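pasting Phosphoribosylglycinamide formyltransferase for the record, 196 residues
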Amino acid sequence: SKRVAILISGGGSNMVSLCEDMVGEHPARPCLVLSNNPDAGGLAKAAARGIDTVAIDHRPFGKDRAAFDAAVTDALERAEPDVICLAGFMRILTPEFTARWEGRMLNIHPSLLPKYKGLNTHARAIEAGDTEAGCSVHEVTAELDGGPILGQARVPILEGDTHDALAARILPLEHKLYPAVLRRFIKGERELLNLS
Ligand code: GAR
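structre below
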């Protein structure tokens, strides 16, 4: 079966939803969960599922993004993934790294791309007076949050919404969207999936 490596920085709820889907008749299995944050809660969740884990702390690398990315590439090459899923991985990647894995790397981003690349997406959507928000899964290219969009899910923004309220409405959709897009991606399907 296909091998999927998942990169995380935090709690890893999207990583768990991907792993929960990769059972039974699913054509892929998780081969590695890698975190730049040694304290990421997701590492213990992955280990509890019997998945290989590795932490590569970015802090000793300082400003040397190339050296950090090279260390991540070494770990990924050992795991021999067919697909790499960024799931709440909060590091900016070098163009060398994205080129190394282009066509095989997905990311989930908590906005309706191309709106609100980067951070604080929900607050920015509320601040802008948008009537809807959501999440996107896209292919990773050198442009931050800019690669081809493969799937989206949307929710209304309600009167009086806060960042936390909106995040709580969107996260369960992320957990549906990412596994659905990964299944299609593995089959070679690249048309936009609209969940909602
Ligand atoms: C998710 O909401 C994901 O979309 C977001 O971080 C959260 C990770 O949660 N990703 C980004 O902001 C990427 N720039 P999780 O660790 O529970 O999956």
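The mean pLDDT is 98.
The helical segments are 13-21, 41-48, 65-79, 95-101, 121-127, 163-186.
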